[in-house]
Design goal:
Radius of gyration: 21 Å
Domain Major facilitator superfamily (MFS) profile: 15-417
InterPro entries: MFS, MFS_dom, MFS_spinster-like, MFS_trans_sf
Membrane topology: Multi-pass membrane protein
Protein name: MFS transporter
CATH superfamily: MFS general substrate transporter like domains
CATH architecture: Up-down Bundle
Largest sheet: none
Keywords: Membrane, Transmembrane, Transmembrane helix, Transport
Length: 432
């Protein structure tokens, strides 16, 4: 490991801090949609599946289409510039959402948000991977992942308070969108592009960027990485799919206002998510946790155990019990992010990392922005007539989704079987 000076160490953590704030704004601009989902649905006269298409699927399709080309570019171009341009685009588009007056205007602005967000996480995590040596990446990416609970709080509690103050869901989009444009300029002026592959074998840093086909082929050959990616994808289906609808469910089932539900959920997202992420970082910093097998097995156990309370949230008719169960489930949904990113990146060569992360985000976004919203919305619409209540129909749809947590745990547990062979292959890729 290279020696570091205090100045270099401070510069490293500044990069993590800034990119973590980028991640927070990314998450906030997503969460605000869930916070105002019910007011949007009512104003535009949409069904549950219709509002899911407008707010989730429209973003995901274009995120997918442009995400891979942007990641391909990030594997050989200046990643700092890509991140800055991306945050300015999606933030400006988020602000425009607050100015829309009909379905089609909202749809076009939401598509622009997806195009911008596609350039956020893959180059950001690639920058972090080239800022810290291999054995410190899990901890660094866990700190980076603190942007997740911060963004969730901004998009829930803060957005809900803005809606209540201005009596308009549009105000929340404008308030959360404008600061990101300014932040993009700060990134251009204060963050430096690191040397690609600086902590890998010297020859690996000189390898030209890989094609998408080569990246997919290598990812498929790395069975550990394949299962890790599958686990992260199913967690997004399970956890983020549930949270996408929870605000709306609480409003319908318990008669809460947008501000009341946003404040309740935002508090849980922020405190439970932050404490869980910090605790995860502290645990990963321990010498005995340098073994990636222990990390994967720990994630498997946590997700499996958290699946049970996730079912109880929608099974009970008690707001107090549902809230208590959320305090247990939300940490599991948040703490997986940093360790999973680090495990995946450690099994990918330096010249494939941005594309590898883009593939991971592609499958995750298909799960939590296309499958979860549309399937839950469709089930809710289908059951509403039979149950006579769109609150009850949504409850049964979410109960079915909650059980997929066991599926994610299976992939984490299975991934460890080939860790040794896949680690040898990644070292060989660096020496080739």
């Amino acid at each position: 490991m290279m020696g570091t000076t205090p100045r270099l160490e401070s510069a490293r953590w500044y990069v993590v801090l800034v990119l973590g704030l980028v991640y927070a704004l990314n998450i906030a601009d997503r969460y605000v949609v869930s916070t105002v989902l019910e007011p949007i649905r009512k104003e535009f006269g949409l069904s549950d599946s219709g509002v899911a298409w407008l707010t989730g699927v429209s973003l995901a399709f274009f995120y997918i289409f442009v995400g891979l080309p942007i990641a391909r570019l990030a594997d050989h171009a200046n990643r700092r510039n890509i991140v800055a341009a991306a945050i300015m685009l999606w933030s400006a588009a988020t602000a425009v959402l607050g100015l829309t007056q009909n379905y089609w205007q909202f749809l076009l602005a939401r598509i622009a948000v997806g195009v911008g967000e596609a350039g956020g996480t893959p180059p950001s995590t690639s920058i972090v991977a080239d800022t810290f040596p291999r054995q410190r990446r899990a901890f660094a990416l866990t700190v980076y992942a603190l942007g997740l609970p911060l963004g969730a709080w901004l998009g829930s509690s803060v957005a809900g308070a803005i809606v209540e103050h201005f009596h308009s869901w549009r105000a929340a989009f404008i308030a959360l969108g404008v600061p990101g444009v300014v932040f993009g300029l700060i990134i251009l002026l204060t963050v430096r592009e690191p040397v690609r592959g600086r902590f890998e074998r010297i020859s690996e840093a000189k390898v030209p960027s890989a094609t998408f086909r080569e990246t997919c082929k290598f990812l498929w050959s790395q069975r550990s990485a394949w299962h890790i990616n599958a686990a992260g994808t199913v967690i997004c289906l399970w956890g983020w799919g549930l949270l996408f609808w929870t605000q709306t469910y609480f409003e319908r089932a318990y008669g809460l206002s947008t501000a009341e539900a946003g404040a309740r959920l935002g508090t849980i997202y922020f405190w439970a998510g932050t404490v869980a992420t910090i605790a995860t970082g502290a645990i990963l910093a321990l010498p005995q946790m340098q073994d990636p097998k222990r990390i994967a097995q720990g994630l498997a156990a946590i997700v499996a155990l958290s699946t049970i309370p996730s079912f109880i949230i929608y099974w009970t008719h008690s707001l107090s019990l549902a809230t208590a169960m959320l305090w247990i489930v939300v940490p599991a949904i948040y703490l997986y992010v940093g360790p999973t990113m680090a495990l995946l990146l450690n099994f990918m060569p330096a010249n494939m990392r941005a594309q590898g992360m883009a593939i991971s985000l592609l499958t995750a976004n298909v799960a939590n922005l296309i499958i979860a919203p549309t399937v839950v919305g469709w089930l809710s619409d289908t059951l509403a007539g039979r149950l006579g209540s769109n609150a009850e129909s949504l409850r049964y749809a979410l109960l079915a989704l909650s059980l997929t947590g066991f599926w994610a745990a299976y992939h984490y547990w299975t991934s460890v079987r080939t860790f040794a062979a896949d680690d040898a292959r990644i070292q060989g890729a660096g020496a080739a």
